[in-house]
Amino acid sequence: MTTVPSSCLVILAGGRSTRMGSDKAVIPFEGQRLIDRLVRRYSGIVDCIWLSAREDYGTGLPVVCDDPEAPAGPVGGIFSLAAALQALKPAVEGFVTVPVDAPHAPEDLIAQLSASGRCAVAQDPQRIHPTFAYWRCDTVTAVRADWTTGARAPSLQWLARQCQATFVTWPDSQPFININRPEDLTAAAAIKKAGA
C-alpha cells in the first residue's frame, strides 16, 4: 500500500536566469548541478520533492508549470503549486519552497519552517528570504480567490503578508546566499572553505 506524502519540498527553478546568462538549475557547483545538490540534500528529509519549472532536468521529479491564469513571477508559481497539491496530494497541507540557486540552503529548513503549521518565511537578522518559506495550500488558495485576475503581479512579500506568515530566524545569512551572477559562484564556494 502506498502512503500519501505528508511533507513536500518544492524547488523553484522556473526563473529566466537573465543575470546569470544560462539556466541556473544546471550550473555545476562543487561537482554537481545546483538542482541535483538540492535534491540530494533533502531526499531523505521530506516525503516528496516537486519542481516548479518548465522541465524536470532529468531528475524524474514531478513538475508543476505556472498556471496561465495566475500572476506572473514567483507568486504565480506558489498559486499554481497550491492548486496542484490540493488536486493531486490532498493529504499534503502545505509545502516548503527553496530556490534552485541556493547551494547552502539549511538542512533544517523543512523542520523549522513547517513546525508551526502556519505559513512561515525564513529570515536572518538583516532581512527576510521569502523564496525560503512554508506555504499552506488552503491559505494560499484563499488569497488567490481574492486576487484580481489581470492585476499587476504581486511580490512574495505581499503574499507573505496576505497569508499572515510568521518568521523563522536563522543566525546569519550564509544559508540563503543565491547565485544570481557568474561571480556569485566564487563567493558561494568561498563560504564553505571559510567554514571548513
The main β sheet shows up as: 7 strands, mixed
Residues in helix, %: 25-40%
Rounded to the nearest angstrom, the radius of gyration is 16 Å
**Total helical elements:** 6
Shape: globular
Strand content: 15-25%
The low-confidence runs, each spanning 5 or more residues with pLDDT under 50, are 1-5
Biggest sheet, strands in spatial order? 5-4-1-6-8-7-9
The end-to-end distance, rounded to whole angstroms, is 44 Å
Structural class by secondary-structure content: alpha/beta
The secondary-structure element order is EEEHEEHEHEEHHEH
Summarize the structure.
The chain is an alpha/beta fold and about 200 residues long. The chain is about 30% helix and about 20% strand. β7 (about 120-125) and β8 (about 130-135) form a beta hairpin.
Description:
The longest helix is centred in the middle third of the chain and has 15 residues, at 74-88. The chain has 6 helices and 9 strands; from the N terminus they run E-E-E-H-E-E-H-E-H-E-E-H-H-E-H. Helix 2 (74-88) crosses helix 4. The strands form 2 sheets. A 7-stranded mixed beta sheet has the order 5-4-1-6-8-7-9. It has a two-stranded antiparallel sheet with strand order 2-3. By secondary structure, the protein is an alpha/beta fold. The chain has helices at 34-42, 74-88, 109-114, 137-146, 156-162, 182-195; strands at 8-12, 28-29, 32-33, 48-52, 63-64, 94-99, 120-123, 128-136, 166-169. Residues 1-5 have low confidence and may be disordered.
